[in-house]
Structure formats: structure tokens, C-alpha cells
Automatic annotation (TrEMBL):
InterPro entries: Glyas_Bleomycin-R_OHBP_Dase, PhnB-like. The lineage of its organism: Bacteria, Pseudomonadati, Bacteroidota, Flavobacteriia, Flavobacteriales. Signal peptide: none annotated. CDD domains: PhnB_like. This is VOC family protein. It comes from the Bacteria.
Amino acid sequence: MNNNIFPCILFDGNARKSADFYCEIFNGKITVDTQVVINIELFGQKIMLLNGPPQEKNPSVSFMVICDTEDEVQKYWDRLSEGGTALMDLGSYPWSKKYGWIRDRYGVTWQLFLGEKASDQKLVPTLMFIHQNNGKAVEAMEFYTKVFPDSAIGNISKYKDGGESGEDPENVMHAHFTIDGYSLFCMDNSYDHAFDFNEGISMVVMTDGQEETDYFWNGLSSEGGSEQVCGWVKDKYGLSWQIFPKQSMQLINDPDQEKVGKVLQAIMKMKNIIIKDLEEAYNS
């Protein structure tokens, strides 16, 4: 499993509270604990929780948890329901004997699914392609697997294979793909939801050196994507990515807070992260 790609969830000051909540529910652990960034590990997978400007999280990116037993589904559902809201009631569906979709008290949405894993990942981010992106799930998978090495498109189920009425039969009901060994699911959806991809949930790509940083920055911002600040980029579908060289993380984690402050100030002025400029700021 690739630990250089992982999701980041934005919180309005309550990242630590949510970290404790998720670690308790899913038997996880906190691996990084700072005022701004908290990393947790659930089922051996990294998730970054970031205290930042308020940005509503929504079901355009949800987290599928693939469970082994009905009791496991029920256990997670009961805990996530505390202060949460059901989006699809827990029950039996054509694709799973026990399944439910729920928004927790912090606005993060989870799909709890009894079934077989498509890879060694138990927790799989799931992308919903809606509005102007509806019908583009296959195109998006082709785009992502072109940008990332060691990538592949797996099983694709279309609505004509037994999905809901009201959906285009050629649209994707559920599909699996991997980017650099990291599993993601995706789906098309024709409903006029009041949400879409935003910065509330992004994907982080940790890179080795400037060349790889530039490669992913240019690749993900191509064909109509947009460059953001501080290493953030939006792809042409509006999904946010953070392209961060590992060298920059080493500088940020330095015990010398004055040097760290200079590095952070330099990052705030950048779009794509330039490692040598950060090193200059660190040594200034």
C-alpha cells in the first residue's frame, strides 16, 4: 500500500477532537500531533486532519469502510450515528447485505459496506462525479491513471447492470482504480446535489525531490485544472490535491521554531513548492 498518497480533511479548529473520535471508533492511533496538523492511522492507513479555514465537507468525497461481518458494520454505524445523520439508511441492498451511508458529527461521510475488499485497503476514499462532472467517472479514472505511475482501472459497474432508475444506464454506479498502488472508488450521480468537490477533503501526494513535485503539479493542473497556493492544486474536475515534497516536511518538523516560521512564511508565498527556496529561507 502506498503511504505517499493519503486524504486530508479540513477542520475548523476541532481536528484533535475528531482524531480522538475516529481513533476510538476504528481502533486507530495518532501519529503526528501539532496545533495545525494531526495525522492518524486507521487500519494501517494515513489520514491527515488539518485545522484551517472553515470549509464544509460533503459527500462528494466519502470514505468507504469495507467490513468483514454484519456486527462490524453495526458497531461503526452506532458510533458514527452519535450526533450524525443517515444519508442512506442502514439495511440490505442489492450490492451488500448490510450497508449504510452516514454523515458524522464533524461533517465527514462514511459508507459502511459488508463485502470483499478490492485491494489490501480497508478504507477507500470514494469520489462522486456530479453536476458538470456527471458521466465523467471513466474519463477521470483514465486521467488519474495517466498522471500517476503504477496505476490501473479495476472493475466498473454501470447503472444498466442493476442500478437506480433515473440514472443514465451508461454512467458508473461503482468503479475501482489505483494510483501508484493507492485504491480509490468512484461513481457518477445525476442528482442536483447542493454540493461538489471543494477543499474540505483533498488528496495529499508526498513527493521525492523537485522533479517529481513539478511532475505531479503540472500533471494534475493540466487540461483546465488550476494552481492554488501553498502546494495546493485543483484538477480539471475540481478535486483538490496537495503536492508536498518530503524535504519540505523535514524542514517544517525541525525543532528550531524560528527556522520553521521562516519556512512556513516562504510556503505561504508559493504556489508550486520550490525546495531550494525553502532551504534558503531555512538557512537565512
